[in-house]
Each structure stands twice: as C-alpha cells, then as structure tokens.
Write a structure and sequence with these properties.
single chain; 409 residues; mainly alpha; globular
C-alpha cells in the first residue's frame, strides 16, 4: 500500500507538471497565429522580442525559488511580498534601461521593444505568489496558476493579432494578461487559511543564493535563446522569420521534459542518491530527446502545409532544431544538479560555450542552415561537458558520504 505522504507528493508533482505543460503548450500555440498573421518578417520581430522577454524573466525564476524556500523556513507572506515588490521595482528599472539596448541589438523600434519588456516586473510579482504556493506545498493551486498564467498571456495576445493589432499591441495585451494573473494569484494565496504567519530571519546566504541561482537560470535561458536573438543580425528578415519558426521545435524539445528535473531534484540534493538520480535524469532526457528528434523529422514536411510555402525551407531542418533543444535539456539537468548540491561552478563551462557560440554566429554564419548547425554543435559540446561534470561531482560526493558512514573502503 502506498503511504499517504508519498501519494500526496506524486499527485502534487503530477498536477504541477500538467499545469506547467499546459502553460508551455499555450506559449507554443501563440506562434502559429503569429506566424500566419504577421508573415516571416513580422514574425521574426515578434519571436525575437519574446526571446528577449524570456531573458528579462530570469530574476522572476530565481525569486520564486527563494520565496518558496523562505516560506518553508517560516518567512511570513507579508515579508515575502515586500521582497517581491522590491525585486519588481528593480526589474522595472532594468527593463527601462534595457529597452534601447535590446532595440538596437534586435533592430526593432523602441516603442515595440518597450511593449515586450514591460511584462518583466509583472512576471516578478507573479513569481512571488507562485513561490508562496510552492513553499506551502499547495501544488493543486500552483498547477492551476501555472496553466492559467499561460492562457492569460496567450489569449489576449492572439486576440490582438487576429484583430490586426500587430506586434506591439499583441505584446502589450500579453503584459496586461500577466498583470491580471499576478493579482489573481495573490487572491488565491490570500484565500488559504494560514496558521503560521510568523517570521524568522532568512539565512545569511540568501542574497548569494539568489545571485547563484540567477546566473544559472540566466545561462540556461541565454543558451536557449542566443541563436534566435542573433538571427536578425546575421540573416535577412525573411530568413530570420523562417529560423524563428524552426526555433519553436527547439523550445518544445527543451521545455517539455522539464518535469524530469522537477521530480528528481529532491534526490539530486541527497548525496546518497544524487549520482543515481542524475544518471536516471540524463538517461530519460536522452530517451525523450531521441523520440522528439525522430518526431520532428517525420512532421517536418507538414510545416509548409500548415504555415504556408514561405516556411518551406524549415522542413529539412526541423529535426536539427529539435536536437538542439533536446541537448540543451541535458545541459539544464546538469546545471540543476549543480544547484542541488550548492556548487554552481560548473555553470562556467556553459558560459564559455555561450561566448564561443555568439562569436561563431557573428563571424561565420551566413544562412539559417549554418546558424542551426552552429547552435546544435555548441549545445552538444555543452551537454557533454556539463553532464560529465555533474556525474563526476556527485560520484565524488557519494563516495565521501559512504566513507563517512563507514560503507566504503
């Protein structure tokens, strides 16, 4: 008979995974009407700004982890929200500073770029509430909020596109949806009966932990987005739009198996089971990735039928995009293992690969095919280096733990 606690954890993980997948699927579906309505050139701008928006969401991803951890340790809702509000103000300031820089990098106008980055502080507020739900183990509510957040961003954006609003209005509509969802998530948190509204000081390493988690999240996001962000600088607008559509397959292969890390992360943090958990996660990711690559190769010829003849070139490259995303999922797993053991130095290898990829793209790439080949090759190198480091370190830690307990030689 399965213990009640184990059953509850499994159910919670399943709900959170379902909610996360629903949000990701909604985000992917946004690309279909955008590609058809905007055409390759307009869609290239739209996809590039969405990628930039993802980079600006890094503080939100790190903050959710910190809020959840502090909530478990007794930090009150009010204090956690003050931290979230402070981060939102900081991120809003960064968004203002980043707008002209992003516009210059992506060759987009400032107003349209501002429409994309305005979402960033709302994502921080939403992440605060999600962290509170996670820390209180309210996984059912968290799964619902994740799914609803995806819809709240996508539905208004699609509506704006269908009504002929263009890139800027669609991005603003998505920002409004995210802001509304942040308020709704706050209401969900407040409706819970809290009996532990006490507050204890956070651990001394809180800010260091946030910075460490942020740089890991940043390199993961950057590796998954650098090719798309630079595509508009090295390709003509039509080719950049075609590349942006192919990159959707990479994003799908990258994000869809993220539940593997969610499920196995607690074991990664346990020195006695860390090596086994990392090996299992890597094997599962490689298996899932292989299936996704084969599937992309099969459905590739359908792309022109669904999206139009302008996107015909991507049908022959779709499997390579999927391979890039699957390899980056392996990189993410290795870095997740590093966060679990509290040693994120292996992220340096990922940063090095990122720098090399950017240099190669800006110096030797002249076509969409060359760009995806470089991106996939760099993802392969990063996956080998990071996963090897993760396995090596957890093996050493496991051996030390065995000796301490008197198990090993």
């Amino acid at each position: 008979m399965i213990p009640a606690r184990t059953s509850t954890v499994v159910a919670g993980v399943s709900i959170v995974t379902a909610g996360s997948m629903a949000a990701n699927i909604a985000s992917y579906l946004l690309h279909l009407p955008a590609g058809r309505v905007l055409g390759p050139q307009g869609y290239g701008v739209f996809a590039s700004l969405l990628a930039a928006q993802l980079v600006l969401a890094v503080p939100a991803l790190a903050l959710q982890t910190v809020v959840a951890r502090d909530r478990v340790r007794g930090r009150s809702v009010a204090v956690s929200r003050r931290l979230g509000h402070l981060y939102a103000v900081v991120v809003a300031g960064l968004a203002v500073v980043a707008t002209p820089v992003v516009a210059a990098l992506l060759h987009t106008d400032v107003v349209t770029t501002a429409a994309a980055v305005v979402t960033a502080p709302f994502l921080v507020l939403l992440a605060t509430e999600q962290g509170l739900l996670q820390g209180d183990s309210r996984f059912g509510a968290l799964g619902g909020v994740l799914a609803a957040s995806g819809l709240a961003k996508v539905v208004p954006a699609v509506t704006a596109l269908v009504l002929g609003g263009g890139v800027g209005p669609a991005l603003v509509a998505g920002a409004v949806g995210t802001a509304v969802m942040a308020l709704a998530a706050r209401i969900v948190v407040d409706r819970a009966e809290q009996t532990d509204e006490f507050d204890r000081p956070a651990a001394a390493g809180t800010w260091r932990d946030v910075l460490a988690a942020s740089q890991v999240q940043l390199v993961i996001v950057a590796l998954s987005s650098v090719d798309l962000l630079l595509a508009r600088r090295v390709l003509d607008p039509e080719a950049a739009g075609v590349y942006a559509l192919g990159a959707v397959a990479a994003k799908a292969a990258f994000w869809l198996p993220q539940s593997v890390g969610v499920v196995l992360y607690p074991r990664m943090a346990d020195p006695r089971r860390s090596a086994s958990a990392v090996r299992t996660a890597l094997l599962v990711l490689l298996g899932v990735g292989s299936v996704v690559v084969v599937g992309a190769a099969i459905v590739g010829p359908i792309v022109p039928l669904v999206m139009g003849a302008d996107y015909a070139p991507v049908q022959y490259l779709l499997w390579l995009f999927a391979a890039q995303g699957a390899l980056l999922a392996v990189v993410q797993c290795g870095l997740l293992a590093a966060v679990a053991r509290g040693d994120t130095r292996s992220a340096l290898a990922a940063w090095t690969v990122l720098l090399v990829e950017a240099v190669l793209v800006l110096t030797i790439v002249d076509s969409a095919t060359e760009l995806v080949v470089v991106a996939a090759a760099c993802a392969a190198v990063a996956s080998v280096v990071v996963s090897t480091s993760a396995l090596g370190r957890v093996r050493v830690l496991g051996s030390v733990d065995d000796r301490i307990r008197g198990v090993g030689p």
